[in-house]
Amino acid sequence: VLIHAAASGVGMAAVQLVVAAGASALVTVGTREKLSICVEKLGALGGAVRTDGPWLETITQLVPFGKKGITAVLDPVASGYAAQNLEALTIDGRWVLYSLLTGPSLPEEVAKSFLGSMAKKRISLLATTLRTRPLEYKRRLVQRFSAEVLPKLASGSFRHVIDQQFVGLEWAQAAHELMESNANAGKIVLALSPDA
């Protein structure tokens, strides 16, 4: 399973869920430090750093022996990675799109053959967002998360990675600037008091 933006909070959770399910997690991240965290702390098999250029060749070389490509992609990036996702995914691969960080429109050169490429490989594209889901769906999701994932966090088999903690509301701007810089790996915590 290829997980883009794997050093985000969602990405780090996805890496751990994939590994716990017995699958291999490959990742794309923004820095070598973030890649190191995903591999050493979370169990990812390896990955590519997006600032090094196109990630396709690096990821392809990491695909476990005997596999013919990536069977699933968890993608919050969207259009900026569309061409490489199409190339990396194997026949009958699954592409889960859950955000549009690089925009909703495909680059013109990708758009020309996008549907044909999807059909040729029989790729399933699932686009999803929680924003438009009904409250009842969100409630069930939280209940399932509480039952299946929180015990793993409590036991220590899953890790929550906190990049930095700020104490006091006067640090809200600094915390927001850190988030906007995309320099964090994991969560940024803004606590109202040291005891929070």
Q: What is this structure's SSE topology?
A:
Blueprint: E1 2-3, H1 9-20, E2 26-29, H2 32-40, E3 46-49, H3 56-62, E4 70-75, H4 82-88, E5 89-97, H5 108-111, H6 114-121, E6 124-127, H7 135-148, H8 150-155, E7 162-167, H9 172-181, E8 187-191
Short structural summary:
With 196 residues, the protein is an alpha/beta fold. The chain has helices at 9-20, 32-40, 56-62, 82-88, 108-111, 114-121, 135-148, 150-155, 172-181; strands spanning 2-3, 26-29, 46-49, 70-75, 89-97, 124-127, 162-167, 187-191.
Describe this structure in words.
The chain is α/β, with parallel strands linked by helices and 196 residues long. The protein has nine helices and eight strands. Helix 9 (172-181) links the parallel strand 7 (162-167) and strand 8. The longest helix is centred in the last third of the chain and has 14 residues, at 135-148. The protein starts with a strand and ends in a 5-residue tail after the last strand.
Core attributes:
196 residues, six-stranded parallel beta sheet, alpha/beta
